[in-house]
C-alpha cells in the first residue's frame, strides 16, 4: 500500500488528492481550516446536520465548490451508517440517503462527510467510473466496500483506491463485539485489532478497509493516513469533541 497520496493545497483548507488515473478525475479532501463557521464548528464545517448556522455552512460549501471544475455539481448524502450505495445519474438537490455513491457520468461530484470515519475513493484506471464511501466501522462491517465495487463495470484489478484521514489506531477504542463482528466476516480481520484494556481493543480503520479491498482484488491503494482525533488543529473529531463540524471528501469526473 502506498502512502503517497498528495496533500498539495488547492486552496487553504482544501487538499488535492493525486490519483493514478487520467487527468479528468479530480479528488479533494478538506481540513477544518479557513472557513466561516464559529466554535465549536470552527471553521470550515461542511455538515448541514450538526446545528451549525445554515448561512455559514452555505458559505463553506460555496468555497468548496469553487475548487471544482465549473460544471461539476456536488451530490450530498444523508449518511446513516448503513451499507446502501446510490448510483447517481443526475444531481439531486435533496441529499440521498446512503453511505456511498457511484457514478459514471461527467460533472457529478460525489461527496462524503466525516469527522473520524474513513473516507474512501474508488476510481478505475481509465477514469470513467468513480465512487465515494463513508467508511465508518458499521458500514465497513456491513460490506459497503463490496456493495460499491459491485456497481463498477470494470474489474477490481482495474480499480484504484484512496483512503483518507480518520481516527487513528492509537485512538479508536472499541468493544470486543466490534472485533467479533469483523472476525465473523473473515478471520484475517483480527490483525486490525490490538488488545488495549478491560476487554477493549484499538481498531485500525485503514487496515480494515485495506484488507477488504484486497479480498475484492483491489491492490493499488494509496492513503493520507493522518489521525483526525490527534490533530485537533487540522481536523474535526466527533469522538474527541462531541459537537463539532464535518470535513468533506469529494471526487468528480470532469468533461
Short description:
The protein contains six helices and 17 strands. The protein has 255 residues and is α+β, with helices and mostly antiparallel strands. It is globular, with a radius of gyration of 17 Å.
Characterization of the model:
By secondary structure, this protein is α+β, with helices and mostly antiparallel strands. It has one domain: 4-Layer Sandwich (CNF1/YfiH-like putative cysteine hydrolases). It has 6 helices and 17 strands. The protein has a 6-stranded mixed sheet, with no helix packed on it. It is globular and about 50 Å long. The chain starts with 7 loop residues before the first strand and ends with a strand. Mean pLDDT is 93; it is low at 1-5. InterPro entries: Cu_polyphenol_OxRdtase (IPR003730), Cu_polyphenol_OxRdtase_sf (IPR038371), Cytotoxic_necrot_fac-like_cat (IPR011324). Belongs to the purine nucleoside phosphorylase YfiH/LACC1 family. Pfam families: Cu-oxidase_4. This is Purine nucleoside phosphorylase. Keywords: Hydrolase, Metal-binding, Transferase, Zinc.
